Amino acid sequence: MGSRSKARARAQASVATAKQVNGRPPTAGKPEPAADVRPPTLTAAALVEGMQVVGILVAAILSGIATLQGKSYENASGIAITLIGIGAAIALGFVAYGLARARRWSRTPALLTQLFTGIVGIYLVQGARYWWGVPALVLSVAGLVLLLVPPSIRALTNQSSPVSPSRS
User: Fold this and answer.
1) Burial environment of residue 147 by CB neighbours within 10 A (0 to 12, 13 to 18, 19 or more)
2) Range scoring the smallest mean pLDDT among 6-10, 36-40, 107-111
3) Which of 71, 73, 100, 124 could share a disulfide with 66, CB 3.0–4.6 Å?
4) Where are the chain's structural domains?
């Protein structure tokens, strides 16, 4: 029996098992609904990430306006900061989308975003820019908490139940 035949046989056996387990035929062309629903903490983490995207876009736009008005230290650096800000906002928008869809790949970039946002928030507060620093710190802490609670960890690591340490 060739490898394609073996693969086809396994697929047919899988479909037959799904029919027996669910008690109904699988839908044609539509994926089965997920057994686990996305936890609200993960949805909230995606919203926090989205708010950070908006903050970065606002900062990038303000940087662009300052550059156009000649208030930037150098025009080239003002343009570069504006473009980097817009690029970062786009990238973090994809991370927020990944969190909203409970994609495993979004966990590490989301955690790093919270870490860097916290560092920038501390820097802004130390520089007496409280209108930017305090919201950055609040969003950073909220994002970390929402990403590190057990329901979010389970959803982002595809664990069906909490893992208990073995005491051998």
Assistant:
1) buried
2) 6-10
3) 71
4) 40-157
